[in-house]
Automatic annotation (TrEMBL):
The keyword 4Fe-4S applies. This is Ferredoxin. Keywords: 4Fe-4S, Electron transport, Iron, Iron-sulfur, Metal-binding, Transport. Transmembrane segments: none annotated. Ferredoxins are iron-sulfur proteins that transfer electrons in a wide variety of metabolic reactions. InterPro entries: 4Fe4S_Fe-S-bd, 4Fe4S_Fe_S_CS, 7Fe_ferredoxin, RnfB_subfamily. Its cofactor is [3Fe-4S] cluster; [4Fe-4S] cluster. Signal peptide: none annotated. It comes from the Bacteria. The keyword Membrane does not apply. PANTHER family: FERREDOXIN, OXIDOREDUCTASE.
């Protein structure tokens, strides 16, 4: 399991999650930050600092948010 960055992050530039991640699994994609699901250690540090509340645990994603998990997997070739 991993954390997933969802739609509130699109075009967001704060990037607080980058500094909070202890394993550096977050990268800036084309239009939002993305979490590498293969590297994420499920610590939740990113979720607590996100200023737009865009980060959700994979198991808690709503159906319409699953596209963001797929987007991250594709970006990181997982």
């Amino acid at each position: 399991m991993a954390y997933v960055i969802t739609s509130p992050c699109i075009n967001e530039q704060a990037g607080d999650c980058l500094d909070a991640c202890p394993v550096d699994c977050i990268e800036k994609g084309e239009d939002q930050y993305l979490i590498d699901p293969a590297t994420c250690i499920d610590c939740g540090a990113c979720e607590t600092v996100c200023p737009v509340e865009a980060i959700v645990y994979e198991e808690d994603l709503e159906d319409e948010q699953r596209v963001f998990f797929d987007k991250a997997k594709q970006y990181f070739n997982v």
